[in-house]
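Much of what follows relies on a compact textual record of a protein's fold. A record is reproduced here so that you can trace the correspondence yourselves:
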Amino acid sequence: MINTIIFDLGAVLIDWNPHYMYNTLFDNEQEMKNFLATVCTSDWNEEQDAGRSLQEGTEILVKQFPGHEANIRAFYSRWEEMLGDPFWDTVEIFKELKETNKYKIYALTNWSAETFPIALERYDFLNWFDGIVVSGAEKMRKPTPEFYQILLNRHQVKPEEALFIDDNYRNILAAEKLGIQSIHFTSADKLREKLEELGVL
């Protein structure tokens, strides 16, 4: 019996993409992609999601790639420009779940504690959650099992009564190992279909 829904945020409810900002700095799209693949990589960004300060993360890269200093510093100084609109179709599903009054709904997100307040101010629907667990604040991130456990313990959630939704399959596998039924998010339409199949929506 599912009584708890746990959402990931980025790429599920919120459109975040470094390309939005870096498109204004690079004339050549391939050069931009190479920069994000080799300098400001997703692995590097995830260290800030796991609690490393933005300043420390930035200085490490500047030292490693001094020729890219301006573009590296832009990552966090202009980070807000990487935020797009909400994924409204998924937000609508969230709203419908909330309005049933059947579920506690939480967010479990890999996000820097220093940038998350910007999102909180920008996206009103983040206030609908019964609780949000932010990796940067906890100094650990998905797919670390202990990170999921923080949410389960803090909000007295039983794994077998929860449903987890995330776009990253790595994070889905980690949740399932803890006994949390999960949906690998690929689109709002497919999510709705799966929730209806499960009798959740």
Observations:
- The mean pLDDT is 98.
